[in-house]
Specification:
Number of strands: 0
Order of helices and strands: HHHHHHHHHHHHHH
CATH class of the largest domain: Mainly Alpha
CATH architecture of the largest domain: Up-down Bundle
Oligomer: single chain
Strand content: under 5%
Length: 325
């Protein structure tokens, strides 16, 4: 777009790349744009492929004539999010692989104990002490693992969907050493970036605040939209309105206030957003490090437990051998 390329040709080019879902979505947008429809309108019809933030910001960019600038900012934002996610996955990949290898080794031992027979006849001794042998034992072992995975998956789903208002415990999560402050920093970075982009695009403070709270992807922060709106309508500044939500740390509120006093909201908050983007990178590294350490500890404890189980069974045989007849 910045080079003056035709929009329809750009959309046609994008429709030839990516996943099948992306190609279908971009084809629909191109067809709509060719018929005179706004890009944001066509994006809205392709939900949930396009995030709400992208749809709203595209509409604002079209309305204000800043579509090129808005798209550039969005691309930087999503590239940053993608990089953070990839770095996190790379950090936990090796410990996760080791955990899978450990599970595979135990599964193999269970299977072998069921298909082989002892030299004296009968079943082989249960070296693991679980009472699991053969293919059936492997399936039972995997079912135990599936239950554990399901529990963690259920917790993740409950937090994402705010089941039973579980996100109200977010302040307690923030008190967890290292990981709590890291999660808060990443959330504030999302908020600050969206707020900066919204104000720069010409969106009014009320809608900018609501959009930014929604961008945190947290029902805990979304709950602050109404008190913030009421405060702004009552004549409060942006920092005062955010303070009324009782969601943000004092340091963040102070930085917003300084940004308001030092220049235009969009420019000053943009600097704040870039600062928090840098903090978010460090925060993601912290979370990845903690997650990696937890997986390492899980693997170590699992292997140590298995070793002691096997060693205990072997020692039991020796004790039986030394008992008087």
């Amino acid at each position: 777009m910045g080079a003056g390329a035709d929009l329809l040709k750009l959309l046609e080019s994008e429709a030839k790349h990516g996943s099948a879902q992306q190609r279908v979505a971009m084809t629909k947008i191109r067809e709509g744009a060719k018929d005179g429809h706004a890009i944001s309108e066509m994006m809205r019809h392709q939900k949930p492929f396009f995030p709400p933030l992208m749809v709203v910001m595209t509409r604002v960019g079209e309305t204000t004539g800043k579509l090129e600038r808005t798209m550039l900012a969005l691309s930087e934002h999503y590239a940053q999010q993608y990089t953070l996610r990839q770095n996190f996955l790379r950090a936990i990949a090796w410990p996760g692989l080791q955990l899978l290898i450990g599970i595979g080794v135990v599964s193999l031992m269970i299977w072998i104990m069921g298909v082989l027979t002892a030299p004296t006849g009968g079943q082989m001794t249960d070296m693991l002490g679980f009472g699991l042998r053969g293919p059936k034992g492997v399936l039972i072992f995997w079912s135990y693992i599936a239950v554990v995975v399901a529990v963690f998956g259920g917790i993740y789903f409950a937090v994402r969907k705010n089941v039973g208002g579980i996100q109200n415990v977010v302040p307690l999560v923030y008190q967890i050493p290292k990981i709590g402050s890291a999660i808060q920093t990443i959330t504030l970075a999302r908020f600050a970036w969206t707020l900066s982009l919204s104000l720069d695009a010409g969106i009014n403070p009320i809608d900018s605040t609501r959009l930014s709270l929604d961008a945190t992807d947290s029902s805990y922060y979304r709950s602050g939209a109404k008190p913030a709106e009421e405060a702004i309508r009552g004549g409060a500044t942006l920092s005062e309105a955010l303070n009324e939500t009782h969601l943000f740390p004092e340091e963040f509120i102070t930085q917003i206030e300084i940004a308001e006093l030092s220049g235009t909201d969009a420019e000053s908050i943009d600097r704040l957003a870039r600062d928090y983007d840098e903090r978010a990178k460090g925060a993601m590294q912290t979370i990845a490090g903690v997650a990696s350490a937890v997986i390492w500890m899980g693997v170590s404890m699992f292997l140590i437990f298995m070793i002691f189980r096997i060693f205990g069974n072997i020692m039991g045989f020796y004790q039986q051998g030394f008992e008087p007849i």
